[in-house]
Task: structure prediction
Amino acid sequence: MFSVSKTYPSQITALSDIYIEVTAGEFVFIAGPSGSGKSSLLRILFGAEKPSSGEVIVNGIRLTHPSFKKVYQLRRTMGIVSPDFKLLRDRNVRENIAFALEVTGHPPKKIREKVSETLRQVGLQEREKDSILSLSAGEQQRVAIARALVKESSLILADEPMGILDDEMTGKVMEIFSELHQKGTTIVLATQDGHLIQRHPHRVIPLMAGKRGNAESNEGGRAEE
Amino acid sequence: MISFLGYAMRRTLRNMKGNLFPNLTTIAVIGISLLIFLSFSLIAFNLTSLLKIWEEKFEVIAYLKKGTSLGEVEGLLKQIRQLDGVETVNYISPFDAMTFMESRLGRQKNLLEGVQPAILPASIEIRLKKDYWGQTKIDEVAAHLKRVSQIEEIQYGQEWIETFSVLVHLVRLTQWILGGLLLAAIIFIVSNTLQLTISSRREEIEAMQMVGANPAFIQVPFYLEGLIQGLLGAGMAMGLLFLLYKVVLITITPLMKGWMAGIPILFLPWETITWMLSGGMVLGLFGSFVASMRFLRYGR
Result:
């Protein structure tokens, strides 16, 4: 991401002259308080929004003026966890997770196996047939995470994925992310949870009011200058 | 491919069932709009076919002066046959004219009792080649005939046919102007209904976009929805038009007497019906395409 700025039609500037480089296989925290531009940054990274200026290249695809084809091809290579989950209310837990593989044309047998494995990973195997509406917000969050994981993507973009999870589940999800990271998956995780960053020694990119913030010392996280 | 189409059709039908009222409204509005257009088409079609019948029956009648002998008639027929543009000539003697009148009067033929055939003029019916049916050419032929001394009077209904032909053109013009306006209305309506459908399924569309579904995977069910709406709307219009046609046939036919009894009232031919159904589908498809252009985009 080179010199990227994003200004909305309402003249609110979400990002201003941002430069970020994440190498393949890296685990990076995008840290900052609410309104610092974390979500805008991630939305630009997965092609949901176009930058007002600057250049964005993700997985080798230039996203400055993305075409339909480029965006959907890019999203097939990544797992996205958004804060509003984007789950299908008229389908159960298993169907919501399987959906990510169905729309990309995976064979039914592989879908069944992969979904069962992912359900176990996020601890939802007992609730696979339950409706999304019967789940708590935390459980819905885990379904959204499972949907991002099931695709075995090379890149995971997660916007406040632990926002409403309890400590135990937060630890469990972080364990899954760490495992994926060790296997070579690139993880970009936006959070405002300072404790989470402190507990996990990964690179931190601080954001403050849409600009790259200054380095902040923390015990675990390795902040950039 | 087949499994994708099966999936797309299932999703289309589920979308339509889930938004039944807007879908039925759209189909009804398309149907009524197309019915207006088709009504004009049917009127224009019948007027055109009537014009064709008249044109085929079109002939010049030359009434002969009294006292023209049969020998003179022979020479006259020969002379007229040689004129440019003449296809056939037919001599109608006063007796033939009387027989014709009796047949037209039917039961009232006793009105002619006491009338001598000799009071009716002999005539020659002249059929012209199709190329000579225009006003200028027919005037040329008439001018030649007027120079023949045995001919008393020449009659032909060309002016009337031309006036009628202008009327047919006017109906056709109205049909296409109305058609153009209704076409724009149909595209607007289909596109708006589909925008409602798309809005109601925004969650699912966003979820599909999030996991990288192919744009065609997302858009095809909406295109199919527009296509089905167009087809059903056109089908409904065609059905209603047929009912109207039957009603007109039942009520008008008994009132058509005399020369009008011979005028056939026709329904649209199969080719036109097929074109109209296909046209409805294309309109629906175009409406859904307009809606999808605005709402099914990746990225903002």
Notes: Chain B touches chain A at residues 203-204, 206-215, 217, 297-300 (CB under 8 Å).
